């Protein structure tokens, strides 16, 4: 990938800004984007990056449709107030040969997921990012445009970018010293020709509502369906999907969809007669993972035909209401569950899991779990009770002979079931108490980070004033 104006293309790779970049043909943008079969799956990928920025002080992410100032067409806006990206990070974000590093906690990084998701939604995207680090304030603008590349005949992906840095002495925004005037003018010319903004002033105006740090993504020339309608349809209530997209969100973070606050919703709260079941798959005596599943009946059961497990990975919803059993008969109807399975790996588009032996074990256990729960509780929602043997006592760490799995099954017998429900309620209350404490601590940390940023900004402002005063005294 190149970040400068057109120049002769070598056969395989080139050195740009002191780095080697493989040449990727613009036609790659389309197949790379088709990994997202669903448009809102692509939006979720972009929201993941904003949610990861909570650790850097992010308090909101905005999803909205705005107007392209050049032609009035609809464009998609996604904006957060996270830490933003410096010029180097921006190049990583828009560089196809940059390799994402797996994180133990991050669910979405500005890596290939950014390119795939933005190109899935539209032909072109422009990114504005402001970053403050060690009293250095930078602003970067980057353009990834299939329209630009196809119409100009490039045979490799060129990403025009311009970078600015705030000069505390002059109090002005200046061209970033790393790349020079010639690089800046060439890239600015391409931005003004192919972006929605026709002047540099209009480009810089996009930073006005970003604040001291954050990122704004604008996707334009949105794709249309075969029937000629815009593929991205906000009228089909995507608010429901966004409300359950994350298992946990701090109270200090907001998702704002088209000007409305999306209320976070935990699907586990929709279950009645809920229980917690511990699952610990083992192979050769070695534990492969551990997860606690909340299982129960949908509140409206048996009057609604909804069932299955909502499976999260690192806080992110991967499979909503995954049907693990056949519902041709009544057995299992209305049974739903919620679990966070961090020991299985999602596919690149985060719309499914890699089909591994561990994933197959999980599916088998959830299937057994569904039938076990149904057999012992179906009478609670009006179905005929299933005849079952009464077993006294608690079975802990039993071994599944078929799969070699260590599990903690549902307790059998009416008295034991009643005791378990009481234990589950107490455990659930403790979990909620811990979550509230965690949210309060997170709120305090974010407040302190914000205050620190404001103090740093004020310090830089006062420092610049002192320098100006000293220069004026010297002149006198």
What does this structure look like?
There is one protein chain. By secondary structure, the protein is of the alpha+beta class. The protein is 32% helix and 25% strand. The chain has helices spanning 29-33, 39-52, 87-93, 112-121, 146-152, 180-194, 200-205, 239-243, 357-377, 414-475, and strands at residues 13-16, 19-22, 60-67, 74-80, 122-133, 136-145, 161-167, 172-175, 214-222, 254-257, 260-262, 271-280, 282-283, 286-287, 291-298, 308-313, 316-322, 335-340, 398-400, 405-407. It has a 9-stranded mixed beta sheet. Strands 17-16-18-15-12-20-19 form a 7-stranded mixed beta sheet, sandwiched between helices. Strands 1-2 form a two-stranded antiparallel ribbon. The longest helix is centred in the C-terminal third of the chain and has 62 residues, at 414-475. Mean pLDDT is 81; it is low at 1-22, 98-103 and 390-415.
Task: Point out poorly predicted stretches.
Answer: 1-22, 98-103, 390-415
- Strand-residue proportion: 25-35%
The overall pLDDT average reads: 81
The tally of helices reads 10
The total strand number stands at 20
Q: What's the order of the H and E elements?
A: EEHHEEHHEEHEEHHEHEEEEEEEEEHEEH
- Specify the helix fraction band: 25-40%
Overall geometry comes to elongated
| Biggest beta sheet attributes | 9 strands, mixed
Which value, in Å, is the CA radius of gyration?
Answer: 27 Å
The structural class is alpha+beta
Read across the widest sheet, the strand sequence of neighbours is 8-7-6-5-9-4-3-10-11
Distance between the termini: 52 Å
